[in-house]
UniProtKB/TrEMBL annotation:
Residues 31-40 have a biased composition (Acidic residues). This is Chemotaxis regulatin CheY-phosphate phosphatase CheZ. The lineage of its organism: Bacteria, Pseudomonadati, Pseudomonadota, Alphaproteobacteria, Hyphomicrobiales. Residues 30-53 are annotated as: Disordered.
Length: 67
């Protein structure tokens, strides 16, 4: 595991050097993302499934994966 993390760190460091080093990356402008607050039914899209929904994974299905 440690070897894998060191490998990844070396590759990321190499990529940063190719792009001009860490100092050049700090000059990039930060991008602000505005999230719109959803209202009504749109706010429920990620909520619990409704009784009429099809192809829905139940909690029992998820629990069976860990048994």
């Amino acid at each position: 595991m440690v070897g894998t993390l060191k490998f990844i760190e070396e590759r990321v460091t190499s990529m940063m050097e190719i792009w001009g080093g860490p100092d050049s990356l700090s000059s990039l402008a930060e991008v602000e993302v505005e999230e719109e607050e959803e209202k009504g039914d749109e706010a429920l899209l990620n909520g619990p499934p409704l009784a009429g929904d099809v192809d829905v994974v139940s909690q029992d299905d998820v629990d069976s994966l860990f048994r």
